[in-house]
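The instructor's notes for this session suggest beginning with a concrete chain rather than abstract definitions. Hand out the sequence below and ask the class to guess, before any prediction is shown, which regions might be ordered.
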Amino acid sequence: MNILSLNRRTRLQIARATALIALALLAGCATKPKLPPGVTPSVEVGPPLKSEAWKAVATDADEDRLARLGLAWQEALADAKKSDPGDVAREDKLLLPRSALPMPAPTPGSYNCRMIALGRVTAKDKPYESFRPFFCYVQVEDGQLTIVKQTGSQRPAGRLWEDDEATRMIFLGSLALRDEEAPLAYGDDPKRNMAGVFERIAPFKWRLVIPWPQSGSKLNIFELTPVDFANQPK
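After discussion, reveal the predicted structure:
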């Protein structure tokens, strides 16, 4: 069939297809421009992520716990609201998962602390349990903020790491038991490791949220409020 016998629309389609094929062939034959001798191509690299520092320290198990923080909030609150809805409502922002504010870093000093455990892991566990207050201390060690529970038979202690989310810091620590003078370093005993998220939820009020703790709950929440200087523990 002669191309001239085709209708005008068909001839246009053939012409467009031919032009596209020609462009593709030209692109395949093109060569990359050569750089002058002694010049190497530069690659722009963005600033390192803040999370890279704590992820280099965290165990795989703890990094997984932190990644499942949202699920811990969901399941723990669902359990607690079924059994103790009034207690959950009374705590207000302390038990609201999305109530964190910017600038989460705490001021060094002594704090009143208390812990609430949420969620049932086994049938014997309580879905909501509030514990007696205790003292904890925030200090700077080697240029990094640390938190130490000062009293009690189980005393968490650990470091706070900056994160790429502006409303939180990452807590990595361990547990001192009974009469131990100091806690083990994070990672020395995986059964004592603790990993959580530290947030500011109101003026002069912070919380440390531990998802999937190695105890009988799904979420442990520590509330921290500054202690007046005159009332600090001796």
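Then share the key points. The chain is about 25% helix and 30% strand. Helices lie at 8-29, 51-55, 60-67, 69-83, 85-90.
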